[in-house]
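quick one, 144 residues, struct below
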Amino acid sequence: MDGKHMQIGEVAARTGLSLRTIRHYEEAGLVTPSARSQGGFRLYTETDVARLMVIRRMKPLGFTLDQMGDLLDVTDRLDATDRLDADADAEPEPGERGALLERVREYERTAAEQVERLRVQLSRAEDFAATLRARLPEGESRRP
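---
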């Protein structure tokens, strides 16, 4: 386990997620606090923060909670097979690593497709905003 533990408020500040959202992801089984304080407060590590950041990055791309959980499971299993590969006495299941990598490739393709759709939407939104600006009197500043 990595060293320092953080309470949920610090994790929320670092990830940009609300306390409620972090708790929701915990209830959905996507993240589990690494420990609890004597007072029962959730305690997280850098590994937990990294996991939450993966979830945060998947959300705007339209991935479901099930898909997020699946990808996190795949990456956890890949990490485990990497540790097994490093251990000369342990052997990973034949073909397991390749199958897991193929699932990651599928998620990467889906993410790339969604990013392209979002680029098209953003371009259209920028065109629309430019159309509106063109209708405003010359020199009138736009509001942020």
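The first strand starts at residue 6 and ends at 7.
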